[in-house]
Request: fold
Amino acid sequence: MFRRVIDTIRSDVQSVFERDPAARSVMEVLLCYPGLHAVWGHRIAHWLWRKNLRLLARFFSQIMRSLTGIEIHPGAKIGSNLFIDHGMGVVIGETAEIGRRVTLYHGVTLGGVSLNKGKRHPTLGDNVVVGAGAKILGAITIGDNSRIGANAVVVKSTPPNSVVVGVPGQVVVRSRSREETALPDLEHGRLPDTIGETLAALVEHVKALEERLNGHAAEHAPPLHLPEQGIWHGEDFSI
Reply:
């Protein structure tokens, strides 16, 4: 039993080094990472919850919430190697389920959307990364190896190897499945601009229709703009 606890602590510390380049030493990780403290506190609270010591479990989880700024209901089921980076404002509901090697950033909510006493919170698969401020709501499932963009609001299930951005969350399934590895997908800058790309495609389509009808672009039509290297130009765009 003691050996298993030590192995778990070592694995959790190693997860921090793998996913946070700011981590410099084991002592720093042990003392200065509230996300790690919150996970360890949840394991104790969850053990009390399973022993039907519900009030004690809730009270202990409230103490950890005060110390870390991270609220994890003791009934939530969390897999191995969860890493909560920064952590302030993270909320994980009672019936939430989290797979292995999941990464959560600050302000993430795994919340419910009903008064149902049963399953009402999300299930996250393995190797899922949830960006800062994202909200995943309801009894939905986020597939393995998926990445949720910062501030996305996700209210429907997503297949494995997805990227989700926007409000409400737009699901983009990657054309090539990401091979499962020990390291999560932390490429936060590689997020699709679904609305911008759709608008650009519509502008191109309108331009093509005008040329087909008139033989050339309408002389008095306003100029059609497309983004250049992802940046839109033109004074006719209101702010």
